[in-house]
Write a structure and sequence with these properties.
Keywords: Aminotransferase, Pyridoxal phosphate, Transferase. This protein is an alpha/beta fold and 391 residues long. The protein is built from 13 helices and 13 strands. The protein has two domains: 5-45 and 287-390, Aspartate Aminotransferase, domain 1 (Alpha-Beta Complex); 63-285, Aspartate Aminotransferase, domain 2. It is globular. 51% of the residues are buried. The model has no long low-confidence stretch (mean pLDDT 96).
């Protein structure tokens, strides 16, 4: 009996990049007090008013099968949000509600890639990207970026791979893991490559409410890009609803029609009471989103103050998202070695840059997901540890 090559090859035959995280969790299970700066999980949970709306809906009976594409109210709420914030006219027919952003990423690649197609993505990348592409039977092709350019992709480097034949390009801004926000020039370059080489663009925009410098620009809003762009969105980061598993894809109507068929044969939709809670959350507008985002901007400023007083640890410009990317190459260690050393010595868990691709070698990603006091203490300890190693 053999398992399929597709399922056994999701991680490419190597590590899935989560080794340090699993190590930290084993320590915690043994009673060790570990400061976790690993995953993007808010330290403040879903707002009680959202949970109350969810409870009211569930107790009101919305616990059966919901419509597979999403409830009419949820699809219209997302469409209205995108229309208002991007200027692109969007109707409910352009929206599919999914069980979280990860499900949307998978579905988007199913829609745009046939088995064996080359699917491009930017390195550094969120850890699941290449596995998601392999999972749909496509070939993941990373586009390397450079720390000296704040890990922003260059159109000419994307074009090199596009000329070899590709079906899709996946981008993410604000970016996880680097915290970089792509400006208009960068996105215009990406859009031009997509049009010249007939690429589908998959735009992961789950951090669109977490922008500290610059502005969030959806590439779907650029000239002639709505017809070839699939936007992945989620309530996880914007509304601290990570465990509720609710996201969406915005795409041309024809694409959504086919994605509804996919959802019918896979997820069969999202629970109605969760969608009702999400509709309620979206109706609270930007005020609630700003409240949820505020701790990360505040901690970004704490980090900048600490890092300004030393020369060992470098900060990649932290323009958005709930992470900072730190350059620890001055210690002489790889990101993975430094992360293990920090965990073993000080019980502080971070993610190695190598978990997110080759471009981030010698870096670590720090999630700003503990309270201010603990975050400040942990980051100062991290800097002190790096200085000790460098000396």
């Amino acid at each position: 009996m053999k398992l399929s090559q597709r399922i056994t090859n999701i991680t490419g035959g190597g590590s899935d990049g989560w080794d340090v995280f699993y190590k930290a969790r084993r320590m915690i299970a043994k009673g060790v007090d570990v400061t976790e700066l690993t995953i993007g999980e808010h330290d403040i949970r879903t707002d009680p008013v959202i949970l109350a709306a969810m409870d009211q809906s569930a107790r009101g009976g919305h616990t059966g099968y919901a419509m597979v594409p999403g409830t009419q109210e949820m699809r219209e709420a997302v469409a209205a949000r995108l229309t208002e914030r991007t200027g692109v006219p969007t109707s409910y027919e352009n929206i599919l509600i999914t069980p979280g952003g990860q499900s949307a990423l998978f579905a988007a690649h199913v829609a745009t890639c046939s088995p064996g197609d080359r699917a491009l993505y930017i390195d550094p990348y969120y850890a699941t990207y290449p596995g998601t592409i392999r999972g749909v039977g496509a070939e993941p092709v990373p586009i390397r970026t450079h720390a000296a350019n704040a890990f922003k992709p260059k159109a000419e480097e994307i074009a090199v791979e596009a000329t070899k034949g590709a079906a899709s390009l996946l981008v993410n801004t604000p970016n996880n893991p680097t915290g970089t926000v792509y400006g208009r020039d960068t996105l215009n370059g990406i859009a031009q490559v997509c049009k010249e080489h007939d690429l589908w663009l998959i735009s992961d925009e789950v951090y669109d409410t977490q922008v500290w410098e610059g502005e969030h620009i959806s590439p779907r809003s650029l000239p002639d890009m709505a017809e070839r762009t699939l936007v992945v969105g989620s309530m996880s980061k914007s509304h601290a609803m990570t465990g509720s598993r609710i996201g969406w894809i915005a795409a041309p109507k024809e694409v959504i029609t086919h994605l509804i068929n996919l959802a019918t044969h896979t997820t069969y939709g999202v629970p109605g009471f969760i969608q009702d809670a999400a509709v309620f959350a979206l109706a609270q507008g930007e005020e609630l989103e700003a409240e949820i985002a505020a701790p990360f901007e505040r901690r970004r400023d704490i980090a900048k103050d600490i890092l300004a007083n030393q020369n060992t640890v470098g900060l990649v410009p932290a323009q958005g998202a709930m992470y900072i990317m730190l350059d620890v190459r001055a210690t002489g260690l790889s990101g993975e070695a430094f992360a293990n050393s920090l965990l073993d010595t000080h019980n502080i868990a971070t993610m190695p840059g190598e978990s997110f691709g080759h471009s981030a070698h010698g870096h670590i990603r720090v999630a700003m997901t503990v309270d201010d006091k603990r975050f400040k203490s942990a980051l100062q300890t991290l800097v002190d540890h790096a200085e000790h190693l460098a000396a």
